[in-house]
Amino acid sequence: MTIPEMRLRRKIIKEEAKALLFGQVLSHPYFPHDIYINMSGIKEWLNQPHKHYAEKNEALLNLPQLLYESEYVNAVLDPKGRKHIAVSHLFQTKIERDNSWIIISETIWGEFLVHSISDNIPYIYERQDL
After folding, report:
1. How far is CA 88 from CA 9, 38, 69, 83, 108, in A?
2. Which residues contact 72 (CB under 8 A, 6 or more apart)?
3. With bands split at pLDDT 50, 70 and 90, how would you rate the model's confidence at 120?
4. CB-based contacts of 86: which residues, under 8 Å, 6+ apart?
5. Residue 58 — φ and ψ, nearest 5°?
6. Is the dihedral of CA 47, 49, 52, 56 positive or negative?
């Protein structure tokens, strides 16, 4: 796929995700909280660099199932140091057979929001007692 084709597909995915996912409540069998997706999460997911960039973007359209089938790993302090984020919850999944982590931000007011996905989380194995 050429870069112009990838850009066009990314734009189409953004519109499809907006129609399909915006405002939807997601769940995970071992995570007892409703998880919401907003436009900020959709945009961040699509902007995130990734080893399998095109496949990561396509995975957004299957996010409810992808999250549901992922493995909850743990909660870590927000690596960006955002004051309104209590912790980031990490869910391990696969994109093209490589590990990736779906990041769910827990706000200080108790809301759980899809933040992004990453294939590079160096602090993943630093267990936190939260």
Report:
1. 29, 16, 19, 12, 11
2. 28, 30, 31, 89, 90, 91
3. confident
4. 78, 106, 107, 108
5. -60, -35
6. negative
Quickly tell me which residue has 């391990």 as its tokens.
Answer: 92
Residues in the chain: 130
Residues 6+ apart with CB under 8 A from 95: 50, 51, 52, 55, 56, 59, 117, 119
pTM over 0.85: yes
